[in-house]
# Entry
Amino acid sequence: MDDLFRPEGDWSRLPDVAVLAHRISSLVSNIVAWAVITGAAWLFTNPEPRPTLVAAAAGVAWTAWRVIRAGRWVRSFRYTEREHDLLISHGLWVRKLIAVPYGRMLSVEVTTGPVSRLWGLASVHLVTASSESNAEIPSLPAEDAAVLRDRLIATGEAQALPL
Amino acid sequence: MPPDDAPAVAGDAVASPAPEKRTERPHPLTPLIRGWVVLLAIGVGLGRELLGNLTEDRPLPPITFLIVGFVLVAVAAVVIGFVSWLTTRFVIDADELRIESGILLRRSQRVAFDKVASIDVLQPLAARIFGLAELEIDIGSSARTKLRYLTRSRAYALRDYLLSRAHGHRAEIGEVTTELIELSDLQEPDQVLLRLSPQRIVTGALTSNEFVVLLLTILLTIAAVAAGVAWLPPEATGGRRTGFLGISVAVLALAVSGVSGIVGFVARRITGQFNFTLSRRPSGLRISRGLTSLTSQSVPPRRIQAVELSQSVLWRRLGWFRVEIDVLGQHLHNENDTRASTSSVLLPVAGLDEVRAVLAQLWPGVDFTTIALRPAPFRARWLHPVTGPFLGFGHDDAIVVSRHGWLQRRWQLVPHARVQSVRVSQGPVSRLLGLADLHFDSAGSRLKVRAMGLDAGHVRERQAELIELAQAHRPDLTLDGVGAVPRPVDEGPATTGDDDPSL
# Structure
């Protein structure tokens, strides 16, 4: 892929089950959203069938697109722990490369939701003082997530400058 | 409700005989000042209702009914205000800062002295008439603790006491003996850095982009309406062509409201920024401003995350800048910097030398004007056709500077010590052009510092370099992490525990 977002190094990727998990959660959320939209269209344009059909068709197309993209997005996701910072790279249209120095890490959260729990997945979130950093690694196997969390905290503590 | 004279909890380290806790109440006029707004609102609401009834020829409700209702509501408002005043007590002494309030839900809030980030003294007009002031304590959380209303001198005395306690000094609650100047509340140790003259405020308002936009909107509306009236189809006016008179009436009506809008805009700027004074005290910087309401806001330099200079089109000629700050934990908004409340504006209108002098107070040893800014590559103009020539980005070993904007030019400054993470992002068009953007995430909530249209070939080096610099600076409050000049502002006994834990 692009060199800019794939600097050489030892990049980790998300496990293959994450593709399935993201596809399913994307499928569920899109179906719910489009069911509401289609229902509303039917409610307001009752005798006329066309708007409802258009909404339903758009919903099916969009959902299919999102489901395909969800898989590609997961495959585009990489992260690497370097000496002083954690790099996270993801994105299809708008690509992003986030660098968080370990010294700025306030805490590390491991969270899991009902869908990802089915596959034993959990996400690791690096909390900094900024709400914009948004450094999250979604869908790691739960044990790996816990190990990564402990490793990040240990590195962070070792590298924290004495206050 | 706890007893008023609750004995001191677990005496302080010094084993002096535990003194009786003296709790205080706000000033007895508080319920009246807080209540008059309610009464006014009720009066206006009733009046409007009655007028509506009159014009629609509906029968008026019996006048006794109205009066009784009004009196009942008024009495209820006063009683509620009085009870709330009665149940509000506070203690500010050597040991604690505690505020108890609430009628049904009792609330007792105790604040650790060293967590007090800044304190503002606000004097809305109604309170100011009676010589009262409101104390607003910012502890970095979203809800600000308020004490209202105290006598002006008491409010200032408590403010000074709490600020010196927040800096780790032992202090006594002194009487504010210095004669408080009624117009600007400056005190003895203050060193005035900048005071804006009314002419500067008016000129600044008249040459700001907001004013130009307002003026253009009004003129365009008038022109559009005049044209519309002139070319009205005859059917709409009953077969007659609209004459000169009709047009001038329509234009006049609009012009009147336009002029009142302009006058209101300028008047708001003047009342809000009147006598704008930025001064330096041992505990930090302080802004005081206002004509009818007087606001005195303390600026904690250590909590400032980022600074933005901006310049309207006309200010480019005048060489003026407006400086806004992003302070950790304070959700400041500029609201045209007029309300009697804290604002994000550090300098509403100032020349470059003044800006540099003030920034040197915040960040000693840092001068953004000496940093060479790299312009964006020429191909960036495909993506940023208008702003392209102005884009620029650079850094030294203390701060990052990013320049962008078109009608409103902006210079965004963020110190490495405040950078939490650095992001590269690249959209599809940028990818075609070989460009990328850099985002600097800080703990502030207002200013999003970003550098746009950078050469994608070098952006990763920049990111690595900047991350290294961020890592090298302790995320603490002063900028002297790497060989900068020590802050001259703080004096008094060494404050070892002066690191802000919230960072």
About this structure: Residues 300-472 of chain B form one domain. The CA atoms of residues 364 and 485 of chain B lie 6 Å apart. The longest strand of chain B covers residues 304-311. Chain B is about 35% helix and 25% strand.
